[in-house]
Write a structure and sequence with these properties.
With 448 residues, the chain is an alpha/beta fold. It folds into four domains: 131 residues, Response regulator (Rossmann fold); 167 residues, P-loop containing nucleotide triphosphate hydrolases (Rossmann fold, 3-Layer(aba) Sandwich), CATH 3.40.50.300; 75 residues, Helicase, Ruva Protein, domain 3, CATH 1.10.8.60; 49 residues, Homeodomain-like (Arc Repressor Mutant, subunit A, Orthogonal Bundle). Helix 2 packs parallel to helix 3, helix 6 crosses helix 7 and helix 17 crosses helix 18.
Length: 448
């Protein structure tokens, strides 16, 4: 079959003839004798093309056109009428009709109009799929927003993308900092170049310098060959440094020089090498507070933050949750009919989301896997997060007289070390922080 067609015409004899002609041409045709019947069948059948008489006994054909376009903008509507009025033709076309045929029309003219309408729909859907794939690959789809503050931030990011300025993205874990960085890259003149991402907290300290700046053969034990660093590998494109606040002070100084002079010195090399790269950095820590603590260089902070973007947490942009749910349903490959009920969406909107967008994505995937039916209800959701754990003592109640955040942090570190038997690496894992951050905190609070 070439496509499903819904034919709405209250002229029974003409409808039967038209159905026969279209069926003979290879189309699957369903007829409706009135506007109301036609709209009911449209919702049930989801046809590829609608053909509607403009003069129906119970409903104006233009109203059918408007309703079809409202429910399915991609569905073409072919309008037919016994009155060859140019005014009606113009009005129908202005309101979205694919074309206009006056009765009596030739069998071949109708067939060709249907073929063209269905081809137009196919091209439209291909375009939508292509745009969706581009958005999926760049992360842009997950950055669509209904929140005014977020919309302003995205506008600033897109305007900044055209420059060579360094960008510093701040925000809690899971808010989409790397997605925003990729969006900036895709809107920049460097979009045809590579974008490489480095998580500064995930690479051992003794290897991070080589990872960023490269090394020459024999620079250290195991360096059997020279190797380019990420700065050189990202030449002509963008380098994204996530968790920039975890860099050691000596590496911060070398990073500052790389940004200022646009050159890096590989480990073990005598001479620097020029690099052509746009830098975007991100952190979930308060880097400005790190300046006061002596853990982050002030000059590097201002060099990185030429453009400073602060991603709001999900709890501050709850109106985006329905759109994000739809995006993640598509991303995890959920069947077409799977959706969240209004009650489920309401529950999601009331949740504090300590894990932000990453937590929402995991929840959607989990709900799709464990669902009992196509409609996911509120009671199907498993929201077990530290954001709801006050009753379990994970988040202490704040007394009227207040409490010391440093005392709370000190006690948590002591408990983690005790649980880990004094093993710093294990204690850092329990606290979900890098080992060197734990050591810094232990020195700060004088914990032996």
């Amino acid at each position: 079959m070439k496509g499903k067609i819904l034919l709405i015409d209250d002229d029974a004899s003409l409808r039967r003839v038209t159905e026969y002609n279209l069926s003979s041409a290879g189309f699957a045709v369903t007829g409706a004798a009135s506007g109301r019947e036609g709209l009911a069948l449209f919702r049930k059948l989801n046809p590829d093309l609608v053909i509607s008489d403009i003069q129906l006994g119970d409903m104006d054909g233009l109203k059918i056109l408007a309703e079809v376009k409202k429910q399915s903008p991609s569905t073409p509507v072919l309008v037919i009428t016994a009155y060859g009025s140019i005014e009606l033709a113009v009005k129908a076309m202005q309101e979205g009709a694919f074309t206009f045929l006056a009765k009596p029309f030739e069998r071949e003219a109708l067939r060709l109009s249907c073929v063209k309408a269905l081809e137009m729909r196919r091209l439209y859907e291909q375009g939508q799929e292509l745009r969706g794939e581009i958005n999926r690959l760049t992360g842009a789809e997950g950055m669509e927003t209904a929140n005014p503050a977020m919309a302003e931030l995205l506008d600033t990011a897109k305007r900044a993308a055209g420059s060579e300025a360094t960008v510093l993205i701040a925000g809690e874990s899971g808010t989409g900092k790397e997605v925003l960085a990729r969006l900036i890259h895709q809107h920049s003149p460097r979009a045809q170049g590579p974008m490489l991402a480095v998580n500064c907290a995930a690479i051992p300290e003794n290897l991070l310098e080589s990872e960023l700046f490269g090394h020459v053969k024999g620079a250290f034990t195991g360096a059997v060959n020279s190797r380019k660093g990420r700065f050189e590998a990202a030449a002509g494109g963008t380098l994204f440094l996530d968790e920039i606040g975890e860099l050691r002070l000596d590496l911060q100084a070398k990073l500052l020089r790389a940004i200022q002079d646009r050159e890096v010195t590989p480990v073990g090399a005598d001479l620097p090498e020029a690099v052509d790269v746009r830098l975007i950095a991100a952190s979930n820590r308060d880097l400005y507070a790190g300046i006061a603590e002596g853990t982050f260089r002030e000059d590097l902070y201002y060099r990185l933050g030429v453009i400073l973007l602060h991603l709001p947490p999900l709890r501050e942009r709850r109106e985006d949750i329905p759109g994000l749910v739809k995006h993640f349903l598509k991303k995890c490959g959920a069947p077409a009919g799977v959706r969240f009920s209004p009650a489920a969406l309401a529950r999601l909107k009331s949740y504090p989301w300590p894990g932000n967008i990453r937590e929402l994505e995991n929840l959607v995937e989990r709900a799709v896997i464990l669902r009992r039916a196509e409609l996911i209800e509120a009671e199907d959701l498993q929201l077990y997060s530290r954001g709801q754990a006050k009753g379990n003592g994970l988040i202490p109640e704040i007394p009227e007289e207040g409490l010391s955040l440093e005392e709370v942090e000190r006690e948590l570190i002591k408990k983690a070390l005790s649980k880990a038997g004094g093993n710093r690496a294990e204690a850092a894992r329990l606290l979900k922080i890098p080992r060197h951050v734990l050591i810094y905190r232990m020195e700060k609070f004088k914990i032996s």
